[in-house]
Amino acid sequence: MEPLLGTVTLTLSRWQFATTIIFHFFFVPVTIGLAVIVAIFQTAAYKTHDDRYEHLLRFFGKLFLINFAIGIVTGIVQEFQFGMNWAQYSAFVGNIFGPPLAIEGLLAFFMESTFLGIWIFGKGKVSPRIHMLSIWMVVLGSSLSASFILVANTWMQDPVGYKIDHATHQAVMTNFFAILTNELFITTLFHVLLASLITGSAVALGVAFYQMKREGSRAIFSLGIRVALIVFFVASLGMALDGSAQGTVMVKDQPMKMAAGEALYNTKRGAPESLITIGNLHDKVIFQIDLPHVLSLLATNSWNGKVQGINQLQKEYVKKYGPGNYVPPVWLEYWNFRIMAGLGAVIIAIALWGMWLLRRKKLDTSKWFRRVAIYSIPLPFIANTTGWIFTETGRQPWIVYGLLRTSQGVSHDISAWDVGFTFFGFIALYAVLGVIDFAMMYHYSRKELAMMNGEVLPPNDDADADHDALVY
Could you tell me if residue 134 is inside a domain? Predict the structure, then answer.
């Protein structure tokens, strides 16, 4: 009975962490991305003294603050789970995992929250230049916050700069600089920041197009559309380049993840890139479309480069780490990778289409692009989620790749009933928070800018007056 309960505890702990981190990650990219968009609007308002940028700043500042607040609430839970659900993991990696998280809280989040306070309450009390710089410091703080979290996460994916203390059976940091310069960390950091810019600009682009249907707001949101589209376009192209670089690093550091993501069971030279496979992805393939040699080209930068297969890697890992199943869930990896990559291609196509319309001066009048921009808002969120699932499940059965298995990291003194109770409690709590966030975002993104004497003014009602006081 005890082994069964231990298995249930492990499964529930994994599901609890997965659901809470996925939900939290809905808010992180849009918050970082919108912070950049808002900072651009404020800088343009400061430089040009154009009131249209000021109105865009006030409008999208509300959306940014809503997501910032919900993101903080949903992120706090993660810290507690390390000690409560994953005590064995925390004991093993605490010497390495702890410092980046401490720096994130004491430096990055402190910087972010301090300058956010100056931005919210400092208008008219500090100089316009300081007020403008404060929002850029918020952008820097949020980027540093994501950076130090990724330092810890990518170390779990590719452990470097450490040694094992055989007396305490703990991993001990020996070279913090090696951890900071880990190529997996660098490519992942750019990937997350670019994904954030895509997400934030997609939200701004869709909302601005929705507001364009109102005649009184057309001139203002037309300007917002152009700013959001340019950020969307640049970030989309950057993501394509970084994705290729990240794939090359993955093949070197985590070849099993790449093999599972491509459902490549046997090592091949000139390996094809599978676009879609209908069947069980192994020996009962009903229909398949692939591109010859493309996987080798992407993974090794060589037309006939060798890409290792699942079967060969499994045998290699058994010899290296001992008996066990080292293959992650292939179907989950394969389809999450295709959803992520497919949506990435769609996003790039939308960005190119938008820039083509902008060049031809037809962006504001294209009804089809307006519809696509509005209904495409969920696409980056789906791509972010599937990409995150692909990254985290692809290293299984390891919680720290090659050092500690997930089954070895769970707490010994916590019961399945405790985890089950908190798991469903978090689901209920996060569902409420999700509804609140969506309702507020929906409300404020649809809010009409009032017109008076030919000048756009904030809506004159008590609720908005109170909220404007929070923004400024």
Answer: yes
Q: Which domain holds residue 309?
A: 255-324
| 259 shares its domain with 248 | no
Please tell me the total count of domains within the chain.
2
* pLDDT 10s digits, 125-166: 888 899 889 999 999 988 888 888 888 888 888 888 888 888
Please provide the average confidence, as pLDDT, over all residues in the chain: 83
Answer with the one of 271, 297, 324 that is the final residue of a domain: 324
Shared-domain flag, residues 239 and 299: no
pTM of the model: 0.86
Answer whether residue 472 is part of any domain.
Answer: no
Q: What is the pLDDT of residues 343-358, one digit of tens each?
A: 999 999 999 999 999 9
Confidence of residue 5 (pLDDT cuts 50, 70, 90): very low
Do 154 and 264 fall within a single domain?
A: no
Q: What is the 3-state secondary structure (H, E, C) of the chain?
A: CHHHHHHHHHHHHHHHHHHHHHHHHHHHHHHHHHHHHHHHHHHHHHHHCCHHHHHHHHHHHHHHHHHHHHHHHHHHHHHHHHHHCCHHHHHHHHHHHHHHHHHHHHHHHHHHHHHHHHHHHCECCECHHHHHHHHHHHHHHHHHHHHHHHHHHHHHHCCCCEEEECCCCEEEECCHHHHHCCHHHHHHHHHHHHHHHHHHHHHHHHHHHHHCCCHHHHHHHHHHHHHHHHHHHHHHHHHHHHHHHHHHHHHHHCHHHHHHHCCCCCCEECCCEEEEEEECCCCCEEEEEEECCHHHHHHHCCCCCEECCHHHHHHHHHHHHCCCCCCCCHHHHHHHHHHHHHHHHHHHHHHHHHHHHHHCCCCCCCHHHHHHHHHCCHHHHHHHHHHHHHHHHCCCCEEECCCEEHHHHCCCCCCHHHHHHHHHHHHHHHHHHHHHHHHHHHHHHCCCCEEECCEEECCCCHHHHHHHHHHC
Give the end of a domain, one of 282, 302, 324. Answer: 324
pLDDT at 283 over 70: no
Residues 132, 272 share a domain: no
**Over the stretch 29-71, which tens digit does the pLDDT of each residue have?**
998 999 999 999 999 999 888 888 888 888 898 899 888 888 8
pLDDT score, position 448:
66
